[in-house]
Amino acid sequence: MPIANPTTHHNRSQAELVEDIEREKHEFAHDDIAQLPDNPADGVILKPAPTRRLSLFQTCREYRYATLLCFCAAAGILSDGFQIQMSGSIIALTGFTRQFGKLQANGKYKLDPQHVSLWGSLKNVTAMLGGSIGSYPADKIGRRWMILFVQILMIGAAILEQFATKWHQWLGARLIDGLGVGLAQCCINVYVSEMAPTAGRGAILSTVNLGYAIGSFLSSVSLNIVTKQPPEQWRHAVLSQFALSGFAIICWVFLPESARWLCAKGKEEECKKVLTKVYGHVPGFDVNEEYLRLRLEIENEQVSAHLKRGGTYFDIFRGTNLRRFIISILPWHWQSAIGNPIIGTYSSYFYQMAGLSNPFLGTVINNSVSIASLVGVLPLIEKAGRRRLLMAAGAISISSLLIMGGVLQKPTSATGPVLIAMACIWQVGYSIGPGALGYVYAAETSTIRLRAKNTGIVVFMCQGLAAVYVYIAPILLNSDAFGLGKTVFFWAGMATLVYLIILYMVPETKGRSYAELDELFERKIPAWRFASTETEEDIQRKEIAAQGTA
């Protein structure tokens, strides 16, 4: 992100920095990771200037084109959100049950719980695969082309859904769209984090989850409409997928490649063209200065990686990077541990089992609440902070789960309305907490050099854990030993456990530049002191302010 502030010198002398880098270049001359500058004096005498403190509105206004591009990139998430909701809720349609279920003695069709579990869990397995391999092509061919490839996969899954007649064919569609979800979480999150202005980075990153929510809402509306049509027309619910992928591809046409990726690949002219196009209207912007800033950040990361023998997947699990990796995982994993598999993924199935006459209407209401909550929380992410929102919202969702579990122990005529009300309150907590902030922490807390690799491993781990949750959800819901009430209590217990770990480990990152986060992690500042700890950039801001008033 460009910052129209004067740069300052390193505290260390230029000669010392040049000597350090020359020594590293000599020591690692045959290391193919090293791409150090030919003339280090050109790139190391400057230190990134302190980021300016801007409100979300000021950020979006000043960096309006960068913000718009981030929204365009997040449009690629709409199809993901649609598929995630649709694939879990369509199983409650009568026509779907007749197509893939088995005729029972009572004359009704019923889906095999094992098939339902496999559709959900194996989809998460391929999402794990997408997350684990997605960082490699995203680093090699660029973020932009990966975003397009995701939409091609989503269209392929929708085509297979239109023609599937056997349960394993429907499973094939789930495997394809799961792969697309995993790849999207790698490339789109990384793209947005690299293009978003620092002052509004958290709020803009949360639009990724807003994309999921809007896609899920459109899916629930589509399913609700299909319930009013003849059962054999259940496939009409899938058609919206083509429109969403088409819209995402139209938005993709206007996306430039990430300037940071171009700089890392040594494509100076292309990088400067992107910087000028995206940030040229910002007051005080200088393309050469900004390019130098990007190059300096990347080269400093490379030097640091050499000093620590870094730059590989193994480096994620070394030193302070391990702490940053765990923090990247926790809020995202909490999305599953706090109950999303039953109230999100299998919402219509859950409401159907709870006895609601129109389970899809309940899903529409939930998704409407989700969108409203996510829109409302956008300014709060930068104002109230990530950690405070995460803790408060998590408590709301856990409390809702406990009430739902208690109500479902002895169902009455009032159970349905109470269940919907508590699910909506749960949705508010989920949407403003782990739902909005899971992707923010995953994108913010890794080092610049390891961001794509770290995101890939985070996706792999979170999708792997989600696969377990999604697999056991329908089994527990259909189990005589657990049933609805105890299944909800199970998720309440898991959510509480993760809450306590997050309280101890996850820091406040509001308003911090990547350089500040690097400093705070290197200094091993406890999570609860991140917000109050003064950094070098804070000191520089005070010095600049003092000079301005002198």
TrEMBL record:
InterPro entries with a match to the protein in the record: MFS_dom, MFS_sugar_transport-like, MFS_Sugar_Transporters, MFS_trans_sf, Sugar/inositol_transpt, Sugar_transporter_CS
Membrane-protein topology: Multi-pass membrane protein
Gene3D superfamilies, per database record: MFS general substrate transporter like domains (1.20.1250.20)
TM annotation in the entry: 145-164, 170-192, 204-226, 238-255, 389-408, 420-442, 454-476, 488-506
UniProt catalytic activity: myo-inositol(out) + H(+)(out) = myo-inositol(in) + H(+)(in)
Signal peptide from the UniProt entry: none
Keyword line: Membrane, Transmembrane, Transmembrane helix, Transport
Location(s), subcellular: Membrane
The keyword Transmembrane helix appears for this protein: yes
Gene Ontology CC annotation, any one: membrane
Major facilitator superfamily (MFS) profile domain ranges (all copies): 69-510
A GO MF label: carbohydrate:proton symporter activity
Entry's family note: Belongs to the major facilitator superfamily. Sugar transporter (TC 2.A.1.1) family.
Name this protein carries in UniProt: Major facilitator superfamily (MFS) profile domain-containing protein
Native source species: Kwoniella heveanensis BCC8398
